Amino acid sequence: MPDADSAKELKDYHFDIPAKNEPFFLKGSNALDWGMQNRLSRIFNPQSGRAVMLAVDHGYFQGPTTGLERIDVNIVPLSPYADALMLTRGVLRSCIPSTFKNAIVLRGDGGPSILKEDLSNHELGLAIDDAIRLNAAALAIQVFIGGDHETQTVHNLTRAVNLGNQYGLLTLGVTAVGKALTRDAKYLRLACRICAEMGAQIVKTYYCAEDFETVTASCPVPVVMAGGKKLPELDALKMAYNAVIQGAAGVDMGRNIFQAEAPIAMIRALRKVVHELMAPEQAYDFYQTLRNEKKEVVAR
Ligand code: R5P
Description:
Blueprint (H helix, E strand, L loop, with lengths): L3 H7 L23 H10 L7 E5 L3 H4 L8 H4 L9 E4 L1 H7 L7 E5 L1 E2 L12 E2 L3 H6 L4 E6 L6 H18 L2 E6 L9 H13 L4 E4 L6 H6 L5 E4 L6 H13 L4 E4 L1 H4 L4 H14 L3 H14 L7
Parallel strand pairs: 1-2, 1-10, 2-3, 3-6, 6-7, 7-8, 8-9, 9-10
Antiparallel strand pairs: 4-5
Ribose-5-phosphate (R5P) binds next to helix 11.
């Protein structure tokens, strides 16, 4: 029979080492539950505090857009370099191997196609139990601030937040910019802040050349920068660099990666910028070297 008192003498309780009680590494996320913080840590690298997300959800309203004709051919080889893949459940189930290890951010809403004049008429369409079944880290919901369906899309966001909060899934609020809306800091501050106030734990928004730091500063949760239309590779790297220097917690880019001349080289160069704060010119040299080598070696 073990002697409890003598066993105690053999144990080491490390009385000289205070228990750790460190703040979580992402802003605005300290009060979140363990599961949400764990999911944030799958998207955002705890060492750099930032993420390179690859958005390939365009088909939900655009169909097989350029570069996404064959997800299995064009996107699966890129996926190891993405901290998170942002996509629809249809493409996830049909095209992405279940051995994919990084985070999944699932498009949770949709409705109008590119054929409609007004793209803002989105409805929440993803059941939370299906998102859990797919092991998603987050749901992505688009809000159209100032659009015809502003209230409806904000309501989509709050419903997703309510559902996500029940099970520890994150909600990524995506600020859409309609044709009639100016993509300036004043508008983006408004849209991002509304997403965060409504409970989104991450916000995705566009870069603006002036005062982008006021957009990130006034958003109390991490902001990731959307890519937008295809730019020359160096310009896209500069935009990503400027965004992270001005407070973005990373990027969630699509066309500027998968429409690049060498997509794997591009996402690897972006990782240098986002995670290592490599100067964009140097990252572009890295891109060109990889592109010229024409061998796209898997390495992080
Ligand atoms: C936003 O509207 C959607 O998530 C897009 O499909 C995605 O963000 C577009 O990415 P990018 O503008 O970088 O191609």
